[in-house]
UniProtKB/TrEMBL annotation:
It comes from the Eukaryota. Keywords: Heme, Iron, Membrane, Metal-binding, Transmembrane, Transmembrane helix. Residues 26-103 form the Cytochrome b5 heme-binding domain. Belongs to the cytochrome b5 family. One of its GO terms (cellular component) is membrane. InterPro entries: Cyt_B5-like_heme/steroid-bd, Cyt_B5-like_heme/steroid_sf, Cytochrome_b5. The keyword S-adenosyl-L-methionine does not apply. The lineage of its organism: Eukaryota, Sar, Alveolata, Dinophyceae, Noctilucales. GO terms for molecular function: heme binding; metal ion binding. This is Cytochrome b5 heme-binding domain-containing protein. The chain crosses the membrane at residues 132-152.
């Protein structure tokens, strides 16, 4: 099993990563360098300002097959990773493939890992629209139920 370390980021998110992924020896890569590694024999991607080498195990073990991974090779795959809905297990698993960070990423990329599902969704809904829906929908349902009750009891 991998030994996990917990890190509290500046944004207040608690992240878990294999200790090897938390190395202070991460290397900085340019986007151009990442773009050179774009096939099955040499497959790198970037996500969340981090650089991942997915050439070996992940191409074989990825549930979606190697074609899915290779189609994103050499590119930023953050949005695709989120759109698929990867769970925390996949996020922790991916952390072991971190080899560095993008040169133009913020300073925290040197030690950060992929955010958990809860963290990534809480960042995405920071406008409060989800919270508003959680209040408005039940209120509408209660009003409709009360109206139906009054209508039915009037007959």
């Amino acid at each position: 099993w991998l030994k996990f370390e917990r890190t509290l980021t500046t944004s207040g998110f608690l992240l878990r990563a294999p200790v090897s992924a938390m190395s202070d020896e991460r290397k900085a890569f340019s986007r151009e360098e990442v773009a050179k590694h774009k096939d099955e024999k040499d497959c790198w991607i970037s996500m969340y300002g981090l650089v991942f080498n997915l050439t070996d195990d992940l191409l074989i073990e990825h549930p979606g097959g190697p074609d899915v991974v290779v189609s994103m090779a050499g590119q930023d795959a953050t949005q695709d990773f989120e759109d698929i809905g990867h769970g925390d297990t996949a996020r922790e698993w991916a952390n072991k493939y971190i080899i560095g960070y993008l040169e133009d990423a913020d300073e925290s990329a040197k030690t950060k890992v992929i955010p958990t599902v809860r963290e990534s969704t809480s960042r995405g809904s920071s406008d409060g629209s989800t919270t508003a829906l959680m209040v408005v929908v039940p209120v509408i349902v209660l009003i409709a139920a009360f109206g139906f009750y009054k209508f039915a009891s009037a007959r």
